[in-house]
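Field log, afternoon session.

UNIT: design team B
ACTIVITY: writing a sequence onto a fixed backbone
BACKBONE:
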């Protein structure tokens, strides 16, 4: 006998670092940025360069949003600032090429994702709710091989209670009958709990500093990997 389906009208997944690797690619590119700029930055310590880049990324979110394109523009802005405009044009070109390489990088699913998503989609409606650049996110979804398993894919510019409320209203799902699965406490857990929904946190081994938030003391579930989600759902109370 198959396990009972818990009382959710929709289960949603985050994309980046929940279904496929993402932050590791940003981390690798930031290492390349650090190596490139250090030679021009007058001995600026690596931690200071990282701080300046994070400040630029955070400052630029309202202009460029989340994603690789905004990251590349922030790298360029930081490079110009810390070198006082001395960064050579060929190094600016290198930063642009870093971004193109990120956009062309293969989509690598996390362990167990294909099996778990395929199994869950067989008897319950699944959504994908992810934030970032529309073109890049749509491309990753298509290349992931998972698109057919989701009733809908929602690419949003921010993940806050108002955004989740709009998405749920569009799909006719009451918050109390909604479950979100994701790696980010800030984006996938806290705003959903604020609406009265349910959430499962599956941490990734890297977290962008902008996404760091303190986990609530209670009110959500936590797993070490997506492998445990079917059993968790089967025994959900």
């Amino acid at each position: 006998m198959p396990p009972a389906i818990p009382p959710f009208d929709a289960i949603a997944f985050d994309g980046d670092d929940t279904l496929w690797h993402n932050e590791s690619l940003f981390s690798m590119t930031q290492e390349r940025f650090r190596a490139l700029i250090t030679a021009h930055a007058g001995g600026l310590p690596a931690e200071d360069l990282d701080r300046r880049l994070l400040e630029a990324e955070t400052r630029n979110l309202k202009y460029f949003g989340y994603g690789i394109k905004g990251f590349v523009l922030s790298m360029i802005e930081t490079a110009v600032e810390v070198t006082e405009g001395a960064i050579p044009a060929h190094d600016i070109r290198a930063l642009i090429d870093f971004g193109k390489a990120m956009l062309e990088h293969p989509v690598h699913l996390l362990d167990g994702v294909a099996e778990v998503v395929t199994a869950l989609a067989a008897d319950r409606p699944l959504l994908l709710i992810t934030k970032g650049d529309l073109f890049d996110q749509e491309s990753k979804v298509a290349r992931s091989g998972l698109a057919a398993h989701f009733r809908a894919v929602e690419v949003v510019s921010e993940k806050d209670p108002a955004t989740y409320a709009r998405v749920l209203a569009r799909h006719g799902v009451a918050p109390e009958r909604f479950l979100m699965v994701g790696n980010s406490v800030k984006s996938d857990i806290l705003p959903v709990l604020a609406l009265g929904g349910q959430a499962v946190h599956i941490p990734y081994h890297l977290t962008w500093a902008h996404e760091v938030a303190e986990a609530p003391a209670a009110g959500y579930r936590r797993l070490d990997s997506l492998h445990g989600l079917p059993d968790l759902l089967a025994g959900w109370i």
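LOG NOTE: The CA atoms of residues 89 and 165 lie 45 Å apart.
NEXT ACTIVITY: expression trials, pending approval
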